[in-house]
Amino acid sequence: MANIxxxxxxxWGAATAAYQIEGAVNSGGRGASIWDTFSNTPGKIDNNDTGxxxxxxxxxxxxxxxxxxxLGLQSYRTSIxxxxxxxxxxxxxxxxxxxxxxxxxxxxxxxxxxxxxxxxHWDLPQKLQDLGGFNNRDLIYYFRDYAQLMFxxxxxxxxxxxxxxxxxxxxxxxxxxxxxAPGIADWKTGxxxxxxxxxxxxxxxxxxxxxxxxxxxxxxLNLTYFEPASDTPADQAATIRQDGFGNRWFxxxxxxxxxxxxxxxxxxxxxxxxxxxxDDLARIKNSLDFLGINYYFRFAVSHKENDGLLKTYARxxxxxxTAMGWEINPYGLYHFLTRIKSEYANIxxxxxxxxxxxxxxxxxxxxxxxxxxxxxxxxxxxxxxAIAEGVDVRGYYVWSLLDxxxxxxxxxxxxxxxxxxxxTQQRYWKQSAYWYRDFITAQKNKSS
Length: 448
Ligand code: FCB
Prior knowledge:
Bound molecules: beta-D-fucopyranose
Distance between the termini: 18 Å
Largest sheet: 8 strands, parallel, barrel
CATH topology: TIM Barrel
CATH class: Alpha Beta
């Protein structure tokens, strides 16, 4: 690691998301979101955990920013809870919600930390789900209006924006597999939601560009590195399908203005292709100043005749694994960084999430998380390699700053570089936090 030097303007950061850390779900006029509904439905979340309290960040943001400052973070990515701004998703604006993000922004800037806000990290206002959620085309306008308000209120101080976080996970897990909110299991709905997410992203970007506010706006995709489990033609074809379903379905419209023909044909043959109106794809094409990539793992893919519509079986089979059962494979990050440049565009990239959960144990007020340090170090090296080959990577955000509510896994999975004792809300730096602080300091010294 000693030899790795990143560009001097590279941003080192950490990421979180509103529902996973804020808690205070009934404070400050916040409206309910689909994650409140889902997590409070018994049996949906491990241990029936909810985000009701989470890390209580809504009340502790000032001391959390002190931790960020002590870490030397140059940037911090979090999300805005739509239902704090519009408790019903649209219509009446909640001033207390605006004030919270206003104060958060000012405190970050006072600490010389550049805020990056994701507008939608899955916590859709419940009232909008009652109208059909993102399956309803009207949502693209409600999202655009919400985005526009945030640009207006914060655009003088915030100049990096992300529209959606992981539209693939939101549409697939939330609407096809049903293990995330809103808990729907229907292919047609899931694919339609994916289209409306992309389109709403494009409308928000148009609004940003029309606002005249300075800065850049992009979208964050989760990219999973799929490789064939064997070299049989069937497994290779399955890998292409899986990559098409999870990755190309989102990348192609953003960069090429078209859904991938192979996957569209598959959906058409099952009557689940999305309803797309004239101009939708033209609006989605090139609707980004940068691409955000969330990268975590590799899956080996085999053809499985009876495994549903995709006929693929994509699983982590070769270790080492994290506590999520995810296979650690830093090469996959390098693969995507270079592939975006060669197959899509030489566009600025931010790694908006990367990190790992392990079975952390607090001993003497810290966690000896050598495996997390090793994970981060290897992914930094993969990033450096891509930069050396000309990929325009501009920043890296470790997931996560704090242990937090890990969706359907509740609090059972710990991704933080800072350990959270949920009983006392005390924060304890894991060894990875000290390591990251020293790494950032060394980078600053090298480039100054
Ligand atoms: C990503 C999510 C993020 C977090 C990590 C572990 O899919 O964007 O909120 O849960 O996974």
